[in-house]
Amino acid sequence: MLEIDTLLNNLETGLKQLVINRKLLNPLMIGIRTGGVWVAEHMHQRLAINEPLGLLDISFYRDDFSQIGVHPHVKPSSVPAHIEGRDIILIDDVFHTGRTVRAALNEIFDYGRPNQVILAVLIERDGKQIPIAPDCAGTRMVLTADQRIKLTGPTPLAIHLENSAPDKP
Amino acid sequence: MIDNVQLNAEGKLKHFITIEGLSNALLTEILDTAESFVGMTDQQIKKVPLLRGKTIVNLFFENSTRTRTTFELAAKRLSADVLSMSISTSSTSKGESLLDTIRNLEAMFVDMFVVRHGISGAAHFIAQHTAPHISVINAGDGQHAHPTQAMLDMFTIRQIKKDFTQLRVAIIGDILHSRVARSQIQALNILGAAEVRVIAPLTLLPAHVETLGVSVSHNLTEGLKDIDVIIMLRLQKERMTSALLPSESEYFKCFGLTESKLKIAKPDAIVMHPGPINRGVEIESKVADGPQSVILKQVSNGIAVRMAIMSMAMQPLGGLQ
Questions:
Q1: B138-148: per-residue pLDDT in tens?
Q2: Do A69 and B42 touch (CB under 8 A)?
Q3: Which of A105, B19, B91, B226 is the most buried (most CB within 10 A)?
Q4: ipTM rounded to 2 decimals
Q5: Which residues on adjacent β-strands are paired with residue A151?
Q6: Cα–Cα separations (whole angstroms), residue A111 to A81, B37, B106
């Protein structure tokens, strides 16, 4: 069911269609660390984008600082300084609650005001908690409360379905 | 004195009072976190929402320009509300005790104190007596410690030299009165520097200085050999109560860093100074402003490093989930 190549192909097809539908001009691609960057590296290559991939670490923008503090392995974000007016493709591995994307959007907007942002994810699962949704996904799936999706990579990129304690929000 | 008051039950930073007793892993975590805050300067809006709604009070019982302003900027870039108090404008001059000042500020729902005080141990004292949800950061206490300065120096060194284990570092000048030197020596030893060498006249060295984990030289020309990092210290005239030096010009002649003496160190050696500089007393202007000087880099890095320490110390009550 979770065949990585199929998902990447689906995402590529969806993204290419989205670029046309939304009239994206010279888009800048940004991946969310860590899994999102791995997926973005594939899409960056498949869509033949010349400009280097942007990397976003959303640790400083998370909404759970008052519960868990600073993430101990935070890495610098690397986003071009001039994103004002740009079309941005934001990529993450799994869309779950929507909170990561909320944080990512806030961080992006601190770099400047983009023209438009579209969100593409490898997997969209159920469990949305805020009114944000991906524009395009490699697949959509409904999981039980104790199931979670884990991406390992970057090479080989693989997906595992794990049964574990309830997900972090 | 191992300062466990600094760490919470999970071993995470709660207060930042001294480098002493902290692990290599924790110091490295501070440096790594600071790395991410340096990148923030690319942002149009140079602010992250991490400490939104938190109140930080800079409590400065002693003068400071760099430290107070960088702490203030760091707090603001973390979106905290920050209040800077200095002794001349506070009730302390009207006779209020330190603890009463703290109690009053606590009653205003403060989350963090950044403390500078002329007496060694002041920050530690406040950390012991303050409410459990409040973090205390030492911004310099007497001759004891100035841990955030040491960490920004470590950050600057790592930025340029990458690896501590190969480095020979010389700390030159008024070691006796320098809380910066004490914290630097501790940090360099914890991070595994190959050698920490102090170079100073006997009168400006504490007794048994070698027990701090340093080698000692009383001769700048000999002491600078094979050195990768040169840290100059300010001559702290305001703390000198007895005749420790014949004259400033004599001091400059023997221990002042000049272009020609700089050549004795390794060709890629960097020159650091915690500021404020006494030009022509401990360092020649040509060296302070020269290509090997990273003095202004230290100041810029001070913001990112203090952001890292403040956000790490502001752990939620009850620790990590």
A1: 999 999 999 99
A2: no
A3: B19
A4: 0.80
A5: A159
A6: 7, 14, 36
